[in-house]
Amino acid sequence: MSQTRASRRRTTLLAAGVAAGALLLSACSGEQPGSSSGDTKFVKGTGEITKVPEGKRTEAPDLAGTSVDGKKLKLSDYEGKVVVLNVWGSWCSPCRAEAPNLSKVAHDTEDKGVQFLGINTRDLDKANAQAFERSYDVDYPSFYDPSGKLILKFPKNTLSPQAIPSTLVLDRDGKVAVRALKSLSEKELRSALDPLIDAK
């Protein structure tokens, strides 16, 4: 092998290594394709929590599908409740960090007209998602959405859940009142929920 070819080969291998490293780093920021066909993309979470005044909220799409446990699941079945909709993946370390907070607040608010739902994405094997739920005592249902199709149902230029993890809080009319493009602490989650629980 000539010196020029060897040098070119080393450069190619180095570039491949850098690309692989970038993929690993982006895995939990959400900066990656949402399906094998590459038609679904997520952007990196900004860390922002956006709260929308009552008169300016837009209605969330009526999501429908099957849960991680294979049961039928529909957002409209929880009409009249405050709904916390969390996008997560078992492969995502920020999702693992916030899971205990979500589970605790879900348990504490279940008798206050609050329903937690998940959207599990990019887990190609349901077993991984189910193991995550067991590990973090997640007893509320999650849509199984490996390709991100449900997330795409949110219209462009609206407060869509465009990062992993991200969380939407819907008011009792099914409208998006809060969006968080980050993993949430228990305090942040309660701060987003309490005004909607108290609203009549």
Explain what you see.
With 200 residues, the protein is α+β, with helices and mostly antiparallel strands. It has helices at 3-26, 93-109, 126-135, 186-198; strands at 32-33, 41-42, 49-51, 64-66, 72-74, 82-88, 114-121, 142-145, 166-170, 176-180. The strands form 3 sheets. It has a 6-stranded mixed β-sheet with strand order 3-10-9-6-7-8, covered by helices on one side. A two-stranded antiparallel ribbon has the order 1-2. It has a two-stranded antiparallel sheet with strand order 4-5. Strand 9 and strand 10 (176-180) form a beta hairpin. The longest helix has 24 residues, at 3-26. The protein is globular and about 40 Å long. The N and C termini lie far apart (77 Å).
Write the layout of secondary structure elements.
Layout lengths: L2 H24 L5 E2 L7 E2 L6 E3 L12 E3 L5 E3 L7 E7 L4 H17 L4 E8 L4 H10 L6 E4 L20 E5 L5 E5 L5 H13 L2
Parallel strand pairs: 6-7, 7-8
Antiparallel strand pairs: 1-2, 3-10, 4-5, 6-9, 9-10
Subcellular location: Cell envelope
Protein name: TlpA family protein disulfide reductase
InterPro entries: AhpC/TSA, Thioredoxin-like_sf, Thioredoxin_domain, Thioredoxin_ResA/DsbE_sf
